[in-house]
Amino acid sequence: MPLHYASRLRVVLLRLGQAVHAQLWFPQTPLAALLAFGGLWLLQVDLGARWRPFVADLLSGQPAITPAVLPPLVVGTGMLIMALGLLLRSRVAWVMALLLAATAVFSMLLGQHRGGHWQLGYFVLLLALLLLAWRRFDHASIAAGTLFAISSVVMLLLYATLGTYYLGADFKPPVVDLVTALYYAVATMSTVGYGDIIPQTSEAKLFAVSVIMLGVAVFATSLTAVIVPTLSRSLQRIVNHKGPRMKRENHFVVVGNSPLATNTWRELAKRGQPVTRLLHQSVQGDALKNVDVVVGDPGSADVLREAGADKATAVLAMLDDDSENAFVVLATRELGGSARTVAAVNDAAHLGRVRLAQPDMVIAPQVLGGELAARLMCGEEVTLDLVMQQVFQNPKPQP
User: Fold this and answer.
1) What is the helix (H) or strand (E) element at residue 223, kind and residue range?
2) Which end of the chain is less packed: N or C, by CB atoms within 10 Å?
3) H helices within 110-201, ranges in order?
């Protein structure tokens, strides 16, 4: 019984989200706002009213730097930049936001921040919300990768430059201005190391080691973040379009790889109808050699749009999971268009829940099998009207 109510609640929430166009802004926009607020809060608590004098001193080249300033400055700045990445639903930005929030939590637990229990609770809650929303951050775009690369380099430059300036007396010759500190930071993080500025103390040497290791890691991950989306898109085009790409208009979109979906696609193709198949994952072999195929999450509006669901004659949701069939119907309606929606029902107990999604037609062959078997065993009459009623359980009466 609790599962029944949970399923109904999920469908109701989906319909509510459809009404407010949640797919366009949720959860990335609220999470980005929370992350940006957290970054500003860190800077406000740790720098407070000193931030304006600090910026002025920084611009003049003689900032008053203490070790306590570096963590909130780097983490807070990183949060502000990564908030932009969350708006793009970038997986890289989500990972960075998670790491930055975790860093803030551990710093507070270790007493490195001035924030109290309220701030600690805020970042713990932000961590939990980010983890709950991990499925929504699945984009790997060049823009997000570039943003990640720039923000990583900026944060590393802040750490290396300000750290070098703070430890200036521990170098030979001493580093006494920000320009020299920036020069040493770039030379060290790029592993060039001209040797004209040498760390003398253990603290300075360990700091130089950390800059070198972080520099190698940042440059490698930044390059990967920019290149991988390009390669991923190229590979996805190869996988998604095994067969000839047809013009996806006034066609049928058959969702799923169940026996019902396969047979429906085959019969439509026999009748010369244009069909696009939408699958969770690609199929090996030559089974779909000359078929227009899209691979992705059928419940995603972006994937359905790629399959041309917004310009289709009909979208037939024929997955093995009845809940997913209902979500496909809801996502198709979000796209607008005039496509009719057909939802398959595999379990008679789920019939009412699928109808909540209000598809144009419900097809229930499994329900028919059970009904016919029971009637035949009991010697009851089986009529054509009964068969049609059980197979095509239309939730919307036709005029």
Assistant:
1) helix 202-240
2) C
3) 117-132, 142-166, 178-189
Q: Does residue 247 belong to any structural domain of this protein?
A: no
Residue 340 phi, psi dihedral angles, 5° rounding: -75, 145
Which one-letter amino acid corresponds to residue 254? V
Q: Is the peptide bond before 259 cis (omega within 30 degrees of 0)?
A: no
Owner of token pair 């973040």? 225
C-alpha–C-alpha distance, residues 117 and 129, integer Å: 18
Instruction: Among 7-11, 224-228, 301-305, 395-399, name the most confident range.
Output: 301-305
Task: Categorize the per-residue pLDDT at 197 as very low, low, confident or very high, splitting at 50, 70 and 90.
Answer: very high
24-78 pLDDT, tens digit each: 688 889 999 999 999 888 887 766 656 566 666 665 656 666 666 667 777 888 8
Residue with tokens 């979500």: 327
Rounded to the nearest 10 degrees, the angle between the axes of helix 28-47 and helix 117-132 is 160
Give the pair of three-digit tokens for residue 162: 């300000």
- Tokens 């290791």 locate to 213
Same-domain status, 86 and 32:
yes
Tokens in use for 74? 């780097």
Burial of 85 (0-12, 13-18, 19+ CB in 10 A): buried
User: Rg for the chain (alpha carbons), in Å?
Assistant: 29
The neighbour count for residue 268, using CB atoms within 10 Å, is 17
**What is the CATH number for 39?**
1.10.287.70
Domain tally for the chain? 2
Residue 107 domain boundaries: 23-239
**Same domain, residue pair 312 and 223:** no
Q: What is the largest CA-CA distance in the chain?
A: 102
